[in-house]
Amino acid sequence: MNIERILGDELMPIHEKVLAGVRLDERDGRLLYCTPNLTGVGYLANMVRERVHGDKAYYVRNQHINYTNICNKFCKFCSFYAKKGGPAPYTLTPEQVKERMRQYLHVPITEVHIVGGIHPKLPFRYYLDVLHAVKEVRPNVHIKAFTAVEIVQIAEVARMSYEDTLCALKEAGLDSLPGGGLEIFSRRIHDELFPRKIDGEEWSEVARAAARVGLTQYATMLYGHIETVEERVEHLVRLRELQDETGHFLALTPLSFHPEDTELDHLPHPTGYDDLRNIAIARLMLDNFPHIKSFWIMNTPAVTQVALWYGADDVDGTVHEYEITYQDEAPGERHQVLTRHQMIQMIREAGRIPVERDSHYNEVPQRPEEERLVVLA
Ligand code: SF4
């Protein structure tokens, strides 16, 4: 293969750095965003991806529970929170959380992902009860719950420090924190799109507290709205610096913005081209993040298959009941799911090796009958 031809003069210096394992700087990041040579960017990201993970592509069997859509933050990019003419308000009781859990007891789910709006009237006890409810139904499931913005709210109602709040939640069953709650570090974007929500500094403080109490965490980057190339690069570099400091992040999920039903619905939807570029650049810039995800609900399964050759090594999960962003569905039909079989097919068709993982990226041993079912199906 003629590498110079694929990369051109422009990307060859970055190739040298990637080969030597030298950290890319902000200038490299901007160049990767600005070059029209997406194939070259993908080639470089794939080098890193295969060096770390070979042909493996991870997935998890998980369930999402969004406990409330009542929120007092009114972020302009959000279609989830209850509003006049939009989604009707709801808050699940701990008993309803149990019912949701029981609905999928026949599926060997290893992770429950719980997030919600910032409901100002929920007491501290509620969050503990939700965690207890989940563990009562599935004692061994991993609970990934509450973004940093929720942790700030919970700490406020608990009247405790972030660290003490996280310790109490951990004691009640919390195992890790999801990404989200920040979207992008830029102060300009914070002030324009989500001024009522925590800023990058507060988000980082929660991350540091999580690391101190021994909780792992995930990170995200919402792209495709009003952010500039410089702001995307700044976001990646600041996450990288934070990870240098804490070492507790497991994965980054670049999240493709869905403008439908938001205050930004005049903006075009990011394209597959944007999705692949952001995944590839995340892989190249975040040399201290073990995993880069292509979240199939945001990117579509089709783009996710290609993303497995553009830096992504994880496709997220089977995802029962995701309600934050949804597309092409009738009103009231928000449930999205890929069965394990579909997930495996999607990965195999892309030419990678499907590996079921738990929330800490340990491989989940497959029962022989499950393997047989997949082969025969
Ligand atoms: Fe509330 Fe989260 Fe939506 Fe912002 S993104 S309005 S904090 S639910």
Class derived from helix and strand content: alpha/beta
The ligands found in this model are: iron/sulfur cluster
Tell me the CATH architecture. Alpha-Beta Barrel
Task: Give the helix proportion (percent range).
Answer: 40-55%
CATH homology superfamily: Aldolase class I
Strand order of the largest sheet: 5-6-7-8
Word description of this protein:
There is one protein chain. With 377 residues, the chain is α/β, with parallel strands linked by helices. The chain has a single domain (56-376), classed as TIM Barrel (Alpha-Beta Barrel). It has helices at residues 3-20, 26-34, 38-53, 94-103, 124-137, 148-158, 162-171, 187-193, 200-212, 229-246, 272-285, 296-307, 340-349, 368-376; strands at residues 56-60, 62-66, 111-115, 142-145, 176-177, 216-223, 249-256, 291-292, 314-317, 353-356. The protein has a four-stranded parallel sheet with strand order 5-6-7-8. A three-stranded parallel sheet has the order 9-1-10, with helices on one face. Strands 2-3-4 form a three-stranded parallel sheet, covered by helices on one side. Helix 10 links the parallel strand 6 (216-223) and strand 7. The longest helix is centred in the N-terminal third of the chain and has 18 residues, at 3-20. It is globular and about 60 Å long. Mean pLDDT is 92; it is low at 326-335 and 372-377. The structure holds iron/sulfur cluster.
Outline of this structure?
The chain has 377 residues and is an alpha/beta fold. The chain is built from 14 helices and 10 strands. α2 (26-34) packs across α10 (229-246) and α4 packs parallel to α5.
